[in-house]
Model the fold of this input.
Amino acid sequence: MDKKVPRSNIIETEIPMGTVHPAALEPYRVRFFVEDEIVQEAEITIGVNHRGIERIMEGLPVEKANALTEKICGICSNSHIWNSCRTAEMGLGIEIPQRALYIRVIMGELERLHSHFLYLAHGCEVLSHETFSMRVFYLREIVMELLAMIGGNRVQYGCSVLGGVRPRCDLDEAKLLRLKNDMDAVEEGLTGFVERFLADSVVQSRITGIGVLPQKQAIELAVTGPTLRATGVARDLRTTMFEYDEFDFNVITQPDGDVKSNLVMRALESFESIRIIRQAIANIPEGKVVNRDWEMVDTDISESYIEVPRGTLYHSYALESGRVRHCIIRTPSMANIGAMQYACIGDQITDAQLCIVQCDPCFTCTDRAIEIIRR
Amino acid sequence: MGIKSFSRARAIHVMLVYTGGCNGCDIEIVNSILSPRFDAEQYNVFLTWNPREADVLVVTGPVTHLNRKPLEAIYEAIPNPKLVVAAGSCALMGGVYKNCYGDIPSEEIEGPVENIIPVNAKVPGCAVRPQDVLAGVVSLLPTLLDAD
Amino acid sequence: MFENILANPIIVVILTILVCFIISTLLPGIERKYIHARIQQRIGPILIAPGIMAPLKFMFKENVEVSSPVPGLYKALPIICFIVVLCVLIALTPQAYQIPALASLVAIVGFLKVEEICYVLMGALSKSVMSVRMPFPDKIKGAVHNNSNLSFIEDISARRSLRMITYGSFPLYLALFAPIVTARSIFLQDIVAYQQVHGPFLFTVSGAIAAFVFFIGYMIILNEYPFSIIKAKSDVIEGPYMEYAAKYRAVVYLTRGFFMFVLGCVFSVLFIGVPPTIMSVGFLINILVALIFVFMMGIFSAFAPVFTNRQLLPTILCTTLLGILAIGLGLL
Done:
């Protein structure tokens, strides 16, 4: 695949879209520079969502700061609180009960399922395929109810706390049984959807070869997560995380880096998530879910990377008399913005929003810490 | 019930504006309108993305600085009678982001939504539940029906 | 007394139009509730909501200043569209056969062309708040291309409708001309008379192919998914209709349902030989054809994504070739 180059010299006109647009789930501005409906260059402006959450976290007690990280993103809220707790636990050397680790993995994988389903549904919606979108949203509802069952809320569950998980999120027999049955239902529904989706030649012609992100370019742009794996690089941080040591799963890759690869990749990854959840249900150890036996000390900057549904998430902060200092958060979409701008080039303007959506944008995550200098 | 209120009760066009929340409310609302589980269309609530078509504007998020003017522009583009639903704690009171700098007024957060455009109904929750959003939109019906 | 009134052709035409109009307001509701919502496994709106209640509601809304360089023309366009559709229906009624200039296919094709040109003008004249006019600091230090010229999203839509005029509407017109070739006349009267003698054109090989081509053309001219490129939600949102509010939007809504019905009538006249008039039982066939078309369109659109230019061109090319085949078979 040849490298796509922004061809600035033949730009005919500029079409700005946003900050409110049906194809975008969140506010951002994108300017397409087009020549005869073919996008030659794209510029995504973020900062529309900037709320300065790291500034709010600075100086807060670490428990409060952990709860606050959930508000970074409404899609991967659990990942943020998980990673934030993990950072403090690494710094303070807290040992986490095995059962809590399992529950965290279950929550993480459920969240991956709901994020991937949202991606599939949103992708279909941007394709203007309302029926497929509705079907995936219907499947997603099962996962959302499971999350609400475990965490008590449909979006921000607040599952992880320092030293384990909230006792509310403990899984008893009835909950495990429901989880198990619903996983069967989700798998059945997803299998049906994927079969239909792949057999639909109209949809396939619409998504194959669109928004291609070549592997070399993806590595150059430091793309992370499923967007990188869809270009054929088998890089998944879950293979290095100690939480996942006891689980057996495959790292899914797709060869092409186009919209089709991305969508299929999310669908196949969802099956792996279901597999992990099943293993967790089968082997969940007994014991307490939270370790309260630790002491707060001042720590140096500790950092933690985890694999979240959209890529690599990085949290780091130091603790000073129980309060958060020097907080830095780096979310996956930050790295993927370059890929979004790149993927649009050379495609029809109708596909351009699709190319942005294929990189799984989450600008609310991204727009938290960029310093905006306004004069 | 006159023909005006009769027709208004049977076709409500809702437009969503996200003004920089955490995405949680946005997705719950899209979910409530798009997913067959909640299916807002059975209450004759239709989703639209064109301000000229809308009757009810659902606003989420604490209205960040860059979102203020677009929100105002969209509000002005909606023909009367129009109603605004503020959904989620951020839209109601700025949420966790409002007190970003303690007592110093925040430059980033212009919200809550009330400061910028008049709000007719408030849907609390972090994040709002789809049922609540539907209830909020439907609770506006009497106001909408009696409007000129 | 009553028979005397019905003897007057003008009153019959007006009654026919009224009945057609009332039935046509139900069609968008039928499509939305009984097809889209059923396929998507949900309840859906009530039957009268999209077609009757929404326009009524818009009637009672306050008018706004439209943002357009020529507001007068922009506001007049939906009314022109509605009148054009009305004229097509009048031309189809048997009472209009007295006026050969009106009741000929050339007139119908001309009216449909006016409709298409209206889309171009609408797109070019609409300047909505959703793209360029959105107050956002785009051109700032550090941004790429600070001196590019700006286009509204409706401008793309206008350019697309122009493209649709040049090649997108071929299938429909080819399908319209297939019956002419068989009946050897451009006058609707002769086409209807020919079919009453020889049986419906639909049941010949050429007619069946032409009917399929007509269906594709029907969806293209109605801008229904998957051919809704001029108002695709993923980029141009609503395209030409962006700026219509209140009464004008009501007219847009009504025109759509009415156009669905009238195109169904066009089909029943050209392919089955049943002109729409409330004076005969054949009117039921007109309604049935319109309903079947709405059903087919609903099913087709529920299972298809929007086509971009890449898919549109081959689809239209194939359909055009089929249309030429139908005409060729008719000539033999």
Chain C touches chain A through 43 residues (CB under 8 Å). DSSP finds twelve helices and no strands in chain C.
